[in-house]
Design goal:
The protein is of the alpha+beta class and 87 residues long. Helix content is 29%, strand content 33%.
Amino acid sequence: MVFSVRVQPRASKDEITGVMDGALKVRLRAPALEDRANEALCEHLADVLKTPKAAVRILSGHHSRSKRVEVRGVTEQQVLALVTREA
């Protein structure tokens, strides 16, 4: 499953806040320095989707807030459920 993510680093807590311009909006405590926000994004998505961290991969946007993320072993319904569960 490949989808777009919009990241907001240095937030007060790690959470998924909904959809923004067709992308899943994710707030992360980690700063956007030394790849820490990217690592935190992969960890958070793996945690909420209950998949191994190795199944989550950033395809593009490594140095941008807008990213394309691939998560292996999940369905579109599981990703859409994130919006309703945490929003």
